[in-house]
Specification:
By secondary structure, this protein is α+β, with helices and mostly antiparallel strands. It has helices at residues 33-39, 43-52, 55-70, 74-77, 178-214, 216-231, 234-244, 251-281, 285-292, 297-305, 310-333, 345-349, 355-360, 368-388; strands spanning 98-101, 104-118, 123-135, 137-147, 151-159. The longest helix is centred in the middle third of the chain and has 37 residues, at 178-214. It comes from Mesorhizobium tianshanense.
Length: 393
């Protein structure tokens, strides 16, 4: 028995057995709910899911976000005003916070102190008075200040007891609270990294992008300039650039001057990285298609080439910011950067230049702790962002 279908008559239309309905690429009929959730997710959502898997990066991001939020309200967070002096407590060591007194819960408090002078070494010794319980106050009135130099205020998150003292990180040679000065110094040290990296990225991406995309004589000149700048030792270059700034400049002008110096020193590495990437990407077919459609060079570089290695730029930014923080700290520590009355972590570390000072008053090195934590946090955050920028790997 013949089971084959009869051949159609000559000239008769062929029968189609394939559906002519349009193909729905987003069809999830054959997918599980978990698969469809991933398949339909946007690029940003995929990046967020990949970033959440990096626990250290998430913790570092939260830590840095808290720090940058804190610099907005540092006057409120600091127990004392930036310039408040406690002349009776010069070089006072850090006080310990206690919760229990004589077996009873009192709440957070510190013991009062009595100063004695060692006549042999002329060193001040502080003895805790166990009968003087000074409870720590919260959301209280304390030293007056000007919020961002504009609004008068006297509210603090934490304050010492009435007629008491609260030196959780000790005091310096003028009796100023080290913890309050660290909180105030974060505003300068953290923002100088962001402002500096913005200036550096602007120069690096523009100059490196044009050199890599166009090549030719412009690329040759840029590479020679970069080689000259990178061959100059850093310390003499810092000295020369710092000497340009007049001593009559206001603190805000000095701040921006140091930012420009750090940006000028950091853009060369990024420019070379951008150039090398664009030299490879400019040969791609989509670049030729954009050129044939009449797109300008700025649009091709900004909309088509730069996003192609955004993960590299993100990693470079998160590594460069702590480098600029270290640069400002080093410049200020050497006396070439910011100067009083500006307060930064580098300025605070100038108190610990002498070995004898460190031996007698080691708490003056505490401003190093936030520098170390911030640098580690930026590095961990950069690792997480670099992986998240390419979620398909």
């Amino acid at each position: 028995m013949n089971t084959h279908s009869p051949l159609p008559a000559p000239g008769a239309p062929l029968q189609h057995y394939v559906s002519t309905a349009p193909i729905d690429l987003q069809s999830v009929e054959a997918m599980t709910p978990e698969q469809s959730k991933v398949f339909q997710a946007s690029q940003l959502r995929l990046m967020w899911w990949k970033f959440r898997m990096h626990r250290l990066a998430v913790v570092s991001g939260i830590f840095l976000a808290a720090l940058y939020f804190g610099i907005l309200i540092c006057e409120f967070l600091a127990p004392y005003n930036l310039h408040t002096r406690n002349m009776d407590y010069i070089h006072s060591p850090p006080q310990r916070v206690h919760l229990f007194h004589n077996g009873q819960f009192v709440g957070p408090f510190v013991y009062g102190r009595q100063m004695t002078l060692d006549m042999d070494t002329l060193k001040r010794n502080y003895i805790e008075k166990k009968d003087d319980v000074q409870r720590i106050r919260f959301f209280c009135k304390g030293d007056s200040y000007q919020f961002w130099g504009l609004i008068e205020g006297d509210r603090h998150f934490v304050c010492p007891a009435e007629n008491g003292q609260l030196f959780l990180a000790g005091t310096d040679r003028l009796g100023r609270d080290v913890l309050s000065r660290i909180i105030y110094g974060a505003r300068i040290s953290l923002t100088i990294g962001l402002v500096g990296i913005s200036f550096s990225f602007l120069l690096g991406i523009v100059i490196g992008g044009l050199a890599g995309y166009h090549g030719g004589i412009f690329d040759l000149i840029v590479q020679r300039i970069i080689e000259v700048l990178q061959s100059i030792p850093s310390i003499p270059l810092w000295l020369a650039l710092a000497a340009i700034m007049p001593i009559t400049w206001s603190p805000i002008l000095i701040y921006f001057g140091i930012t420009v110096i750090l940006g000028l020193l950091d853009w060369t590495g990024l420019a070379r990285a951008v150039r090398s990437k664009l030299l490879a990407l400019r040969e791609e077919d989509y670049v030729l298609a954009a050129q044939l459609m009449g797109a300008r060079s700025s649009r091709i570089i900004g909309r088509h080439l730069i996003p192609g290695f955004m993960s590299h730029l993100i990693a470079t930014a998160t590594i460069s910011i702590p480098g600029m923080i270290l640069g400002e700290t080093a410049l200020s520590f050497l006396g070439l950067g910011l100067r009083a009355p500006i307060t930064s972590w580098g300025i605070l570390l100038t108190e610990a230049r002498s070995v004898s000072v460190i031996a007698f008053y080691p708490w003056l090195l505490l401003p190093m702790l936030p520098v170390i934590l911030v640098i580690m946090a930026f590095n961990f955050l950069g690792d997480g962002l670099r992986d998240a920028a390419d979620p398909y790997k």
